[in-house]
Design goal:
The protein has a single domain, classed as Sandwich (Immunoglobulin-like), CATH 2.60.40. The protein is built from three helices and eleven strands; from the N terminus they run H-E-E-H-E-E-E-E-E-E-H-E-E-E. About 10% of the residues have low confidence.
Length: about 180
């Protein structure tokens, strides 16, 4: 075989191997995390978007409404972080969505969402009993029409999480198997 043909064959094999690795992972560690479906218990969840929130922006100020009394503002070493989820019951029976979540950083620190008053914050994630094919957020609600089309889990995180990436959202469904989604920060 000539050196030129051998070189072309080696390049073709290298290209094929490179292209074969281009699939999306179920637990990506990059910005490819949005849109990944995972199953936690009998319900399917999808991360719509996760990001740091700026309460001084018009859109983001809506997300930090409905805080419990005494929550207080941010200190200089804290940030608001929003995780927007969508869920669907793909079974033939009513199923309860998760009501328990946390974020775990690479240092194994756990952070829990702030319970928002859903009457004051139309984006707040609330545990729901979904009928077969039902979804959360429920259609024709503020969250379903919002820019993220997901229910909000609001976290107050220390800025140190930037040094402890990656972050993982853990979903604890009632009586089911835990699910986890890699978050981008």
């Amino acid at each position: 075989m000539s050196a030129r043909r051998l070189w072309i064959l080696a390049c073709a094999v290298g290209l094929a191997v490179g292209l074969a690795a281009c699939g999306q992972e179920s637990q990506p560690t990059s910005v490819l995390n949005n849109g990944v479906y995972i199953t936690a218990g009998p319900v399917t969840y999808q991360l719509q978007v996760s990001r740091e929130l700026n309460p001084f922006l018009t859109e983001d100020s809506q997300y930090v409404s409905g805080l419990p009394a005494g929550t207080g503002g941010l200190t200089p070493d804290q940030l608001w972080y929003g995780v927007f989820l969508w869920a669907k019951n793909q079974t033939k029976h009513p199923e309860l969505t998760a009501g328990s979540f946390d974020i775990v950083d690479s240092g194994r620190h756990h952070y829990f969402p702030i319970h928002l008053n859903a009457e004051l914050n139309g984006y707040a994630w609330t545990q729901q009993l979904l009928p077969p094919s039902g979804q959360e957020p429920v259609l024709n609600t503020t969250a379903s029409f919002g820019p993220t089309q997901g229910g909000l889990l609001l976290f107050k995180l220390p800025t140190a999480v930037y040094s402890n990436r990656p972050l993982t959202l853990e979903i604890y469904p009632p009586g089911g198997h835990r699910g986890a989604i890699s978050l981008d920060l």
